[in-house]
Each structure stands twice: as C-alpha cells, then as structure tokens.
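Figure 3 (text version): structure tokens given as input.
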C-alpha cells in the first residue's frame, strides 16, 4: 500500500525502528536518518501481466487505461491481495514458485541538498540468508561448470542445484517524457515476448534480428523496451524502429532511467549500475563495476581468491548456506589470476563474476556511492544519486520538481519477472509527492 501521508506518530515510531540496529550516519551519507520521514510502499508480484495484457480484454480496466486512468485509480490499497492471488498460480502465473510471497513492504526515506538526492531503503528478505551469490562455478573434479541458479530454473526446482541468485533493488525514473508512465509505471516497459513471458521467441530468432541480434546489439533474448520504440500498435518485440529514430527519441529525452543495486555484482564495491530503457534495456556508456570471470573458450575462471589475503583460493559447496565472507571476487582487492595447477578439488566453488570499482568508468559508473547492509533479516540500502550526473543518458533532477519513480525488488534468489514491483510513485524533490525528499540545506 502506497501511503501518501503517514501520521506523525507512525513516522516517528517507524523511523526509530528503521535506524535502531544501524548507525545514524552512513559513510556515504552523513545524514541523521531519524529526522527524515519514512514512507512505506507495497510492492507486489506481477506474474506475466504485461503491457499487452494490460490493454487486452482480459484486463477489466483496459478501457479506463485507454481513457488515461491510472492503475492506482482502481487498485489503490489492493496490491497485497493482487500479489497473493497472482503468485498462487493461474493465467498470470503458469509456473508458480512454491512458498513465494505475494508482496513486500519497502520502506523509503528521501532527502536532498543542492547536488544530490539521498535515498534509503529497507525491506525484509524472505530467505534467511542474503542473496549475495550469483553466477557461481563449481569444479567437479575434471572441469568447471556453472552451478546454482534462480528458483525459477528447472534444475533448482527439482533440487539438483541450490538456489543462488543475487538480491536486487531497481529504480526507474521518468521526468514526464515517457507517455503514460505516470499512470502505468513499469508495465510500459514489460512486454509479451520478453524472457519468461508469453510468446518468448527462440534465441535463434532474436540473434537473427537486425537490431537485437548479431548485426546490432548482439543479444539472444528480449528485455525491457518502450512502446514508442516499436512500429506497430501492438508494440511487438521484433517491430523495432530504425536506429535513427531511436537515436532521435533518446536525444529528446524519451527514455526511462534505470538504476540497479545488486547484492552480488555491485554492493561489495559500494556501487550500483546505471542504465536506461528505450529500444532495449541497456547500460549507460562506460564500464560497469562487474564483468565475467569466465574464459568462455576454455570454461575456466580468470581469477581466484588470493590465498595470502583471503586464507584460501576458493569457496566450497558447504559455504553456500553460511553466506561466505568474502562472497565476491574484487580484482584490486582480494584476487589473483587463476592458477590451473593450484590443486583444485571436487566441490571447489568460484564466483563467475569479477568486480572492480577501480575499473568502472563513464556514465555507467555514476552510482558510486551506494551501500547495502543485511542485518536482522533485512537489507538496508543507502543511495546517493547526483541530481545532474552530467551525462546525456541520465535524467537530470531539479529541486522544486516532481518525478515518477518505479521500484522493484528481486528477493529470495529470483530473476526476470519473478520480482516485486510498485505502482508509479511520485517523488517530489523539495516539494510534495507520494514521497517528499526533504531539504538538508
């Protein structure tokens, strides 16, 4: 449930609880968060509800949406019920995950000064351990192979491999240039034909596509995009506008800013990645804080843990349930090049991703003051986002304006559509909104 206002006593009580088990000031944000109001946003499980479904006769509110009504006009305060209904199985969830919750409460605080927007989030995880392991590799005595995966994967559902996937917090931002995002939120970017959605094309079909495939982006699956990037009224995955049209739209600011904090791929180096959505979900120019730690030709790791710094060269399968420390390979901190003659044994495990704060650069590295801490069964993520990053592929924020945000959380070792999402949230920077960023100066 998105509460546009909270009673004073509720705010004070929740804020005190929000900070009771953590310091009042983070290294990246010297803010006394007890003085910043807390708002709660209910995120719910959407299943396979897509932009196409939203506007189809199957959705009873399709006509109202066509007239410009907002999703919240009909569904305000019913997010939890909808999520519980969808996650249990049915036409919007043909492959339910046993035991998965239908909703999640996200506590949000916001503040600003002349240069930055400061955000603080807290949510309780369903799993009893944080999701800090992602794309791991296991040695079977003869060769390395990827090990574990999201709870939606068949091999994990059948108990053949453990659930290993990172927890994640995503933020979408629109400044009013994306048609109907203020009313329909992230459903604008979620479509039939995407991964784990109805009508998903084969990897061969995507690879042969002139824009998405080998002649363009080099992809083999379909990810988020905006309806305006397609040429047909159904916003089909393969009916992409020309690169010239997409470039013109981007120049006009018709895109969604998309930032993602990742518990495995960015949090260990106190960063989040930076991207945008238009014709596809793409990263900003530059270099992210993460890359592959796998030589695809030999299927061997590129780096291993530095035994002199870590005390061992790898993890083991038995470490997984304990939440190993460290769980991530950081190039400049705790790693050395992989040694094939280091006496590898069956059950040795290494991260399939390599992190580096030192190598991150450009617009992709804008979110370089983001910290996450898992304690008492909850994540607390503190985020500093410059109002103006100085890069064209980011939305500039201004004090005195409001912006439409969308929040999503991947929790309990899941990926793609198996997440929790919010309806559109109005964030005011120095002015009123569903969430109001209070001034610090």
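Below: residues designed for each position.
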């Amino acid at each position: 449930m998105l509460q546009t206002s909270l009673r004073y006593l509720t705010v004070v009580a929740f804020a005190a609880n929000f900070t009771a088990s953590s310091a009042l000031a983070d290294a990246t944000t010297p803010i006394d968060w007890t003085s910043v109001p807390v708002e709660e946003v209910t995120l719910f499980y959407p299943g396979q509800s897509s932009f196409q479904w939203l506007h189809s006769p199957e959705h009873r509110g399709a006509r109202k949406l066509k007239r410009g009504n907002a999703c919240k006009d009909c569904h305000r305060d019913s997010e939890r019920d909808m999520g519980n209904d969808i996650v249990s199985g049915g036409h919007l969830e043909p492959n339910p995950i046993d035991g998965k919750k239908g909703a999640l409460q996200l506590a949000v605080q916001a503040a600003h000064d002349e240069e930055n927007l400061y955000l603080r989030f807290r949510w309780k995880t369903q799993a009893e351990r944080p999701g800090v392991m992602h794309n791991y590799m296991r040695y079977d005595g003869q060769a390395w192979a990827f090990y574990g995966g999201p709870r939606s994967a068949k091999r994990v559902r059948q108990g053949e491999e453990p659930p290993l996937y990172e927890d994640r917090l995503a933020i979408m931002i629109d400044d009013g240039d994306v048609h109907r995002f203020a009313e329909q939120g992230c459903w604008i970017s979620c479509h039939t034909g995407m991964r784990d959605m109805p009508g998903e094309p084969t990897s061969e079909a995507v690879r042969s596509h002139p824009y998405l495939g080998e002649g363009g982006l080099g992809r083999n699956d379909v990810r988020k995009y905006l309806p305006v990037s397609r040429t047909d009224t159904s916003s089909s995955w393969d009916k992409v506008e020309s690169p010239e049209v997409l470039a013109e739209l981007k120049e006009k600011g018709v895109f969604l800013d998309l930032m993602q904090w990742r518990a495995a791929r960015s949090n260990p180096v106190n960063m989040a990645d930076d991207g945008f959505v238009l014709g596809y979900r793409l990263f900003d120019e530059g270099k992210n804080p993460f890359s592959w730690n796998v030589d695809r030709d030999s299927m061997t790791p590129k780096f291993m843990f530095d035994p002199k710094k870590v005390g061992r060269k790898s993890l083991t399968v038995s470490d997984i349930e304990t939440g190993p420390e460290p769980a991530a390979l950081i190039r400049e901190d705790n790693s050395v090049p992989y040694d094939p003659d280091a006496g590898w044994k069956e059950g040795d495990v290494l991260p399939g991703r390599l992190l580096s704060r030192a190598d991150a650069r450009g617009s992709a590295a804008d979110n370089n003051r983001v910290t996450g801490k898992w304690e008492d069964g909850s994540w607390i993520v503190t985020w500093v986002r410059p109002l103006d990053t100085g890069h064209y592929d980011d939305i500039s924020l201004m004090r005195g304006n409001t912006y439409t945000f969308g929040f999503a959380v991947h929790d309990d070792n899941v990926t793609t559509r198996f997440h929790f999402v919010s309806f559109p949230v109005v964030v005011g920077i120095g002015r009123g909104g569903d969430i109001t960023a209070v001034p610090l100066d």
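The CA atoms of residues 137 and 269 lie 21 Å apart.
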